[in-house]
């Protein structure tokens, strides 16, 4: 290749590298501020667990989740908090069959991914998630890629003004595994979703940057 054509090509490649480096720097600079942080308790009046293939829905009217959040500014959104315990009780299925779900594979990891400064809404996910389901003559594991992986992902939004965490049914990777005696209510490999709202106490103010 002649010098005449090589120089413009090198300049173009350099410009691309500068542009890419700039983007990488901006992404790496995203940080979070959490106050007050520390121990957090989440309670819900109702959460719904669904098998998206069979259509079976468990309506849970008492849910409690405990965990911690880091405190301060300049925090990474990855692993900014953890879930240390969780249970969904008073869950009724078809013909009012009682079920419970218990968080396992603990601690789960709290990750924050984006922030809307206009609405004050944070988007994030819980990773490393796993739940064990138990009911009359029925048991199952809800997880990500297998019944023992503990790699489930649950997406959520958090609204500071309302101190409310909304569990989103879409965007996660939960499935039913290791079923025993569930009579077709749930089927192994079927996609599972969780949806509903939880009140966060004490109220957390989360912003970025």
List keywords for this structure.
single chain, 209 residues, mainly beta, 2 domains, elongated, disordered N terminus
Q: What fraction strand?
A: over 45%
The unreliable regions are 2-29
Q: Domain count, please report it.
A: 2
What share of residues is helical?
Answer: 10-25%
**Biggest β-sheet description:** 12 strands, antiparallel
Radius of gyration over C-alpha positions, nearest whole angstrom: 22 Å
Number of helices: 1
Describe the structure.
This protein is mainly beta and about 210 residues long. Helix content is about 10%, strand content about 55%. Strands 2, 3, 4, 6, 7, 8, 9, 10, 11, 12, 13 and 14 form a twelve-stranded antiparallel sheet that branches. A three-stranded antiparallel sheet has the order 5-1-15, with no helix packed on it. A hairpin with a 5-residue loop joins β3 and β4. The termini are far apart. The N terminus is likely disordered.
Task: Provide a short characterization of the protein structure.
It contains 1 helix and 15 strands. With 209 residues, it is mainly beta.
Secondary-structure blueprint:
Layout: H1 3-28, E1 32-35, E2 38-44, E3 47-51, E4 57-69, E5 72-75, E6 81-92, E7 98-104, E8 108-116, E9 121-135, E10 138-143, E11 152-159, E12 164-167, E13 175-180, E14 192-201, E15 205-207
Antiparallel strand pairs: 1-5, 1-15, 2-4, 2-14, 3-4, 3-14, 4-6, 6-7, 6-8, 7-9, 8-9, 9-10, 9-11, 10-13, 11-12, 12-14
């Amino acid at each position: 290749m002649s010098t005449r054509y090589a120089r413009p090509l090198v300049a173009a490649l350099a410009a691309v590298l500068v542009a890419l480096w700039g983007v990488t720097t901006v992404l790496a600079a995203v940080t979070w501020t959490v106050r007050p942080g520390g121990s957090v308790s989440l309670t819900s009046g109702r959460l719904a667990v669904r098998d998206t293939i069979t259509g079976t829905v468990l309506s849970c009217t008492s849910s409690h989740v405990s965990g911690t959040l880091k405190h301060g500014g300049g925090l990474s959104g990855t692993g900014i908090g953890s879930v240390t315990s969780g249970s969904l009780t008073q869950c009724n299925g078809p013909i009012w069959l009682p079920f419970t779900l218990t968080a396992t594979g603990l601690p789960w990891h709290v990750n924050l991914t984006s922030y809307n400064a206009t609405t004050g809404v944070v988007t994030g996910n819980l990773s490393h998630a796993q739940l064990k389901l138990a009911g009359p003559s029925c048991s199952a594991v809800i997880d990500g890629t297998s019944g023992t992986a503990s790699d489930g992902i649950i997406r959520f939004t958090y609204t500071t003004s309302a101190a409310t965490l909304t569990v989103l049914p879409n965007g996660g990777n939960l499935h039913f595994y290791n079923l025993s005696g569930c009579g077709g209510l749930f089927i192994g490999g079927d996609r599972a979703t969780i949806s509903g709202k939880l009140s966060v106490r004490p109220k957390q103010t989360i912003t970025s940057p």
